Here is the input.
Amino acid sequence: MKARMLKPICILLFISMLWTAITVNAKTESNPLSESFGMEEREYFAKYNTLVTLKGVFGTSDFHFNVDKNWDVKAVTLFLHITQSQLIDPDFMSTMAISLNGEPVYSLKLTEYMTNPSVIELNLDVRKIKKGINSIKVQVYRRISSKPCTDDVSNANWLNIHEHSGVKIVYTDRKPSLKISQFPYPFYKVQQERNLDTAIVLPDHPNETELACALEMASYLGKHAGVNDILFDTVLLSSVSGNYNKNVIFISTFQNMPFELLAHLPKDTDLSNGAALKLIPSPYGSDRVMLLVTAENDSDLIRAVKLLGNESLVSQIDTDYYYLDQTVDILTKDEPQEPSLTFSQLGYHGIYVSGMFRQKADMALKIPKNRIIDENTTITIHFRYSENLDFDRSLFTIYINDVPSGSKKLRIENASDDRLTITIPKEARKGNYLNLRFAFDLEIKDAWCTFRQDEMPWAYIIEDSSIYLSTQQNTVNLFESFPNPFIRDNQWNNTVFVFPQDFHSYDLRLAGIVAAMIGRELKSNHGTVTAVYDFTKQDLFMASNLIVIGSPQRQEIIRINNDHLFYQYEPDFQYFVSNEKIELLPEYSKDLVSFQLIDSPYNIKTAMLILTAPDESKLQNHIEALFQPSEFSKLIGDGALIDNGDTIINHRFKKDTLERPEFWPQNEYNIRTFAVVFGLSMFMILLTLILFIRKKRNYAVM
Here is the structure.
């Protein structure tokens, strides 16, 4: 009897254990990363970066900071490093009010911070912090005298908020969900550190397509990093073993992919006419993930990488596996750049200022590095303002790149609908940024002799204000306009990376750093980037911009084009020789590194970037250091030498293309006509004179 009862009990226990195992396994598959993932607290500090000076009785300053969507925010602290006038009146209530996202959160007495400098530290309520852009508004009311008129005209009433002020955010990373739609997270994460815990990995003997795909992927990481400095590994698979505690993007043709990684793909996967993307827990590091990108055909592998450059499509892949067939259009839908852009199209939905005296607001517009602004660019500002102004003294002024560019007197009859259109002056058309500052001088009659701030004047710039952007192609390639011409109109511009035939892993790493720097200008996944080992591909070189990294001993393309370099090597390629810009001693120049942006010797309409040194070991540190947004501006011109002391010697060898005078296009026909008529007239006069002299001689002979 007991044996009979024992048998069904054992069966039930077995079924129960099997079900438990299946359930646990299912949970592991759906949520493979440990529960402790991302529990390590990180800090990010968003700085002011510029000195803000508030003058007079009333002053306002706005500061914005970004909270990444993948952060779980634990604490936010505002730090204001201030100095202020020592003449503050202790008998009056001088105050500072702080608002977060439009809501007042804190007020304090300025007389309690009279030590210069002082630090105001304020913990902000994390419940009031939102994902994306947050704003801090600082408003001050300060008096240095019991006589209001003295306060209003005195230059001694001021408060500085210093550039190292800002917001410290304590957060933990959100646990990855193993969905491709989260890309580029966790491979790119907004963080304070320069080094990403990410690696782009290739098979040990990559073909040229795999190399090109790795570089395009590196450019996408640079695109997401924007102005942030980043470093990451771009390495071969043999460098990845054991506890390689990084997130990995492994790019490989199907033939070169290790069997243990192929096993993660569905068994019925057919890659003869498509590509596969699979997101898995990394086999090399705990709490890390690996993205597999593979295809049998080179063209399909390129398409798979370009897919990851299309944020709209990627956001729709809410699974850990995606098969990309050849019918899917993976290219971004790039809208043509309209010459006229409204402020709302630029992300500014109205600009509001209030308060007496001078009130300012700023906005910025970035221009592609391959374009330069010409004389036809205009700005039209549509605005309105309060009717309680002293219209004899109220004014609106526009500054462009810190150059006063236009102004208009405010009038009561235009208060509800006013406009100002200006053409950007020549001296303000510099660089690839338009920094616009709108300054309103909002004066009220007799207000400067009162203590009250009632009925504050205001002004509002309407979002249908616009910029008519007229640009020309930048034809002179300089470091100041880099990554032009390798990026043109926000996409790769027929760029070829030339690798040495004795390829090393660090060649790939350095090329990845350069590609990431170039990628910061990307918006489109159109365009091509190529990698080659064969330096003899003349047809390809004729149609492409070239990037060459390495020593002349390993890069034959440098040796055969030595005569075209700004800084040429001596015949044995052991050191740089002197040129028209600099005298060099052999002992000194053998330790130099040179960055050169020359016209390509294969096609003068394309460019060739050469990063080279007699001693190749010296290249890596300088490329890592200088090919970052915070440092690249140290390179000026089209040639640079860097010595052992990290001193940068900049030169410019190429000349600007001669510009025709501004009147030439309008008067070209008249000037040419005049030149022809004048030439014919002179010819007729000269011919008549010759005939007259001959005739006179004939008479003399007779």
